[in-house]
């Protein structure tokens, strides 16, 4: 609880991510709030329109 309101740099494996500590984060580990994967979207499918 004494760390609430502070910003801590958490390493995600590539760089340090600033994480602002709130009251709801108490009891969790800091790594849960530093995303490690970047979602680039699902693979696009080649949709072709067929004329019947």
UniProtKB/TrEMBL annotation:
Entry GO terms, CC: cytoplasm; ribonucleoprotein complex; ribosome
Provide the GO biological process annotations. Answer: ribosomal small subunit assembly; translation
SUPFAM superfamilies listed in its UniProt record = Ribosomal protein S19
Keywords, A to Z, come to: Ribonucleoprotein, Ribosomal protein
PROSITE patterns per UniProt: RIBOSOMAL_S19
Q: Which residues form a coiled coil?
A: none
Example of a GO MF term: structural constituent of ribosome
Pfam families, sorted: Ribosomal_S19
Matches recorded under Gene3D superfamilies? 30s Ribosomal Protein S19, Chain A (3.30.860.10)
Family the UniProt entry places it in? Belongs to the universal ribosomal protein uS19 family.
Q: What does this protein do?
A: Protein S19 forms a complex with S13 that binds strongly to the 16S ribosomal RNA.
- Write the protein's name: Small ribosomal subunit protein uS19
What organism is listed for this UniProt entry? Caldanaerobacter subterraneus
């Amino acid at each position: 609880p004494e760390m609430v309101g502070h910003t801590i740099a958490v390493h995600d494996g590539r760089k340090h991510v600033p994480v602002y500590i709130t009251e709801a984060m108490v009891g969790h580990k800091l790594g849960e709030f530093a995303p490690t994967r970047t979602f680039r979207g699902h693979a696009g499918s080649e949709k072709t329109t067929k004329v019947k």
